[in-house]
Amino acid sequence: MKPYGIELIIDLHECDTSKFNRKEIRRYCKGLCAAIDMTPCKLVFWDDVGVPVEERQSLPHTKGTSAVQFILTSNITIHTLDILGNAYINIFSCKSFDSHKATGLTKGFFSGKVINSLLVERI
Questions:
Q1: Are 49 and 22 in contact (CB under 8 A)?
Q2: Does 54 fall in a domain?
Q3: Helices 22-35 and 99-110, packing angle to 10 deg
Q4: By the 8 A CB rule, do 39 and 71 touch?
Q5: Number of domains forming the structure of the chain
Q6: Which of 2, 4, 28, 100 sits at a 20 to 30 Å CA gap from 50?
């Protein structure tokens, strides 16, 4: 079977949590798209911005910022966990990209330790 696309899954720990906000994640998405030659489209956030204090997430595995950067050929999904200092990134595209460049840029941007990195060929 001919591959449809590839998905890179990156788990980072011990990140610089000062990067876990809309401004920095927007900057990361812009830089990543440029580095791996992807055309960015809409960027959507899911976080506690504008949410009443009593309704905000407070558990270590839910408190953070999530974002989906739609790209012309699919999407980049980011989940950050403030309390744990972890970031989880998925880059999926039917257009080929350099997974080593994407991993290196992601590790450097968040100053994290790559715990898991997996490249999946989608068919």
A1: yes
A2: no
A3: 150
A4: yes
A5: 1
A6: 28
